[in-house]
Amino acid sequence: HFSEVIPLMKRWNYHPAQRLHMGHHHDISQAILSLIETDGIDGRSYNVADEAPLTAYEIALMEGNTDIFNGKNEPLKNPWEGILDTRKIRRETNFRPSVPTYFFARDYGLL
Predict the structure, then answer these.
(1) Span 6-12, average pLDDT
(2) Considering the entire predicted model, what is its pTM?
């Protein structure tokens, strides 16, 4: 829920170019079911995420609240923070998100 993320991005002083993976509720539940049905993976951890991370600025823009960035001009310190590697769940369970991007969810009325 983007509206809930905005105050956190402001408090954590996010850079507008910081990218963040999303995950639709449907895909989270499908991933859990996939993991339950896969033998031999007890005790392992998996990342579940969509296929196209958004920037903090894009998220704020969609919520109409880009003023949270206060004109930041310094370089992005860690461009990989917020990016999740989903290769393991894809390889071990064949899971693929059915809602691959925010824009897919928006265009198909899934938000």
Answers:
(1) 90
(2) 0.81
Q: Answer positive or negative: Cα dihedral of 40, 44, 45, 51.
A: negative
Structure-block tokens of residue 3 = 């509206």
Residue 81: helix, strand or coil by DSSP?
coil
Contact 24, 110 (CB under 8 A): yes
Contacting residues for 84 by C-beta, under 8 A, at least 6 apart: 21, 47, 48, 49
Phi/psi of residue 108, nearest 5 degrees: -100, 15
Residues 6+ apart with CB under 8 A from 110: 24, 26, 99, 104
- Whether 18 and 80 have beta carbons less than 8 Å apart is answered as no
**Per-residue pLDDT tens over the stretch 16-70:** 999 999 999 999 999 999 999 999 998 999 999 999 999 999 999 998 888 888 7
